[in-house]
Amino acid sequence: MKIVEQIKHPIAFEMELFEQKFQLSMSSKVALLNRITHYIVNRKGKQMRPMFVFLVAKMVANGEVNERTYRGASVIELIHTATLVHDDVVDDSNRRRGFFSINALWKNKIAVLVGDYLLSKGLLLSIDNNDFDLLKIISIAVREMSEGELLQIEKARKLDITEAVYYEIIRQKTATLIAACCSLGAASVKPDSSDVERMRKFGELIGMAFQIKDDLFDYGEDKIGKPTGIDIKEQKMTLPLIHVLNNASKKDKSWLINSIKNYNKDKTRVKEVIAYVKANNGLDYAIEKMKDFQKQALAILETYPESTYRSSLELMVNYVIDRKK
Fold this sequence. Notes:
Elements: H1 3-8, H2 12-26, H3 31-41, H4 48-60, H5 67-90, E1 95-96, E2 99-100, H6 102-128, H7 132-158, H8 163-189, H9 194-217, H10 230-233, H11 239-247, H12 250-262, H13 267-279, H14 282-301, H15 308-322
Antiparallel strand pairs: 1-2
Helix pairs in contact: 2-5, 4-5, 4-8, 4-15, 5-6, 5-8, 7-8, 8-9, 9-14, 11-12, 11-14, 14-15
């Protein structure tokens, strides 16, 4: 059994029912919108976010879920999809998960409007059902994701990023959405319990590990979703690079900064930067930090009784670290 299928196994029924409810939550009276949302639904990814919602809910409530859990999973998926559609416009990207992006097929104007539509659908799904606690969790996540993206853009211009700022960027950009999934799962079945914050922290830790793993792919030889050296070309400062910059001699530091600022499109120079980062323990350092976040996440899970749901979440934490793409 594939690892993702194994993780999904204890919530297979919920995930199937969720897909039906999710499709309904997207429906509109506008034929063009329905055509686009149908296209989105048929090209879904692994659906890790709804999986977090259901696994956490079942772990903290002894296998129970309710309608709020389904709504929470739908809201997170609607809002996540909206951010992806908008991201592709911002990044001028023509592909998403190997398929054409919405903006590539229907142009930017329609893509932005579809993103807005999905965002409002998500908010209304919560408001119409008085899920104000769930709405607060997701609204905080959207705010933080926007702040994280803007902070990264601001820092890319100056290249003055410290390790602490890097953690803040990835916490907001990536970890905050996974944290929202986990706290939503807990809040849907046990509102106002200590589980809500504990699971938020758990999700945040996994999100941090997930993003560091993503950053490490930029230095890999494997054929994965993004070509190697792309972060350097885009002047994104990631942990391996930040670590070597902070520990480099004055001469090496100015060479690195000059390379990223002025030669980031030069393939040979980018390869030299990658080689320098590898030779100066940038990758080892990042792996160590990633494993530290993983360990902390697993420690939180150990505070819950053993169950198939907890086992799946443990598998998920390890999958985040061991995945090949």
